[in-house]
Amino acid sequence: PYSGPKAAEILQKRKQYLSPSMFYFYHKPINIVDGKMQYLFDENGRRYLDAFGGIATVCCGHCHPLVVDAIVNQTKRIQHSTILYLNHSIADFAEALASKMPANLKVVFFTNSGTEANELAMMMAKLYTGCQDIVSLRNSYHGNAAGTMGATAQRNWKFNVVQTGMHHAINPDPYRGIFGSDGEKYAKDVQDLIDYGTSGHVAGFISEAIQGVGGIVELAPGYLPAVYDSIRKAGGLCIADEVQAGFARTGSNFWGFESHGVVPDIVTMAKGIGNGIPLGAVVTTPEIAEVLTLRNYFNTFGGNPVCTTAGLAVLNVIEKERLQENAFVVGSHLKGRLTSLMDKYEIIGDVRGNGLMLGVELVTDREMKTPAKVETLHVMEQLKDLGVLVGKGGFYGNVFRITPPLCFTKEDADYLVDAMDYTMSKM
Ligand code: PMP
């Protein structure tokens, strides 16, 4: 049993000593003290089914024994910076990661977060092309440093940073977008941005395959191939942000971009890569990677022995436990059951996503698609009381984000849907 400080005491310390910008879920935030696979436990030993996985950061399951063992053993042996000396773990993990990549995406740079990975990717695109202009999608989230905050296109997450050279394209959002599911029509906007907003040459394009923070928005079919074409004709590089959609989460593929039939020039990743350990990576071609030899470049802890040992253990677990297949099977079942709830409850405007990256959008009016913000919060609180934790996102904060650890079972999925059904039946 847990005997440490309780929620009230922690809240008091947060108020006094931590940034006032820190936020939490739930009216009465829960103090999570233990995790085991798809479950979390609060200070009183109450168990919750975790359908958010720490924002898609946990892919193998909380405290997966094989990942924990790998981390502990490596920590006992040596943990240090990645610069100056050799160590096998960074090399072994880079090799394993490269083996999961298509085409000539074979060179890996490690970072400590998704923000850092995207900053590096965009810098490399600028160096490689000699251009400054980057196109990103409205409603995207790519990080919170100067460049990535510029690429991020949702005012909720943007401070007044200078965003030189950033162009935000119309989001190819099949549910709310102006062209429905016609990917090629949306793609025309990127060509227009290039033609009317730049010299005709750009550094690159960055997008998620499924927008996570943006509320599990799948890009309209046909969009990415057409955009990659426009960007490459303008001399730019295509960057895939796989921070949320990568690592088997979408079920049908290991990487989110694969379902769009494109091969990026640079792929960035974080979150699930380390099952909760701070780690990020940028993978690109040997030719593009050369740009970083123009100056000295390093990242003190990026790719350190403990984190890369964890990363390698994660890849092994995904394979051994067939987590991609599980994400596909359980995700399809869950999506099917969530979709059938739409027949019962008018408030569900849309169910979308792939594998175990699913979204449920609540609206007060299906025709107008009016965001049901208050109701979303209410259902989220009720679900918590029933022992189920889901995430929330989207520009209006009216989309449930369901991104559980990939060990989620059909029974877990049924429990989640039953809890949602029960909650909505009482509204
Ligand atoms: N890209 C995407 C798609 C993300 O969802 C996030 C984080 N929510 C980031 C980048 C930034 O990652 P980090 O918070 O690790 O810097």
From TrEMBL:
CDD domains, A to Z: OAT_like
Record key words, sorted: Photorespiration, Pyridoxal phosphate
Assigned EC number: 2.6.1.44
Entry keyword annotation includes Membrane: no
Pfam family, one: Aminotran_3
Enzyme class: transferase
UniProt keyword annotation of Ion transport present: no
GO terms under cellular component: mitochondrion
Cofactor: pyridoxal 5'-phosphate
InterPro entries for the chain: Aminotrans_3, Aminotrans_3_PPA_site, PyrdxlP-dep_Trfase, PyrdxlP-dep_Trfase_major, PyrdxlP-dep_Trfase_small
Molecular function terms, GO-annotated: alanine-glyoxylate transaminase activity; pyridoxal phosphate binding
GO biological process: photorespiration
Catalytic activity, as annotated: glyoxylate + L-alanine = glycine + pyruvate
PANTHER family: ALANINE--GLYOXYLATE AMINOTRANSFERASE 2-LIKE, PTHR45688
Family, per entry: Belongs to the class-III pyridoxal-phosphate-dependent aminotransferase family.
UniProt name for this protein: alanine--glyoxylate transaminase
Biological source species: Kalanchoe fedtschenkoi (Lavender scallops)
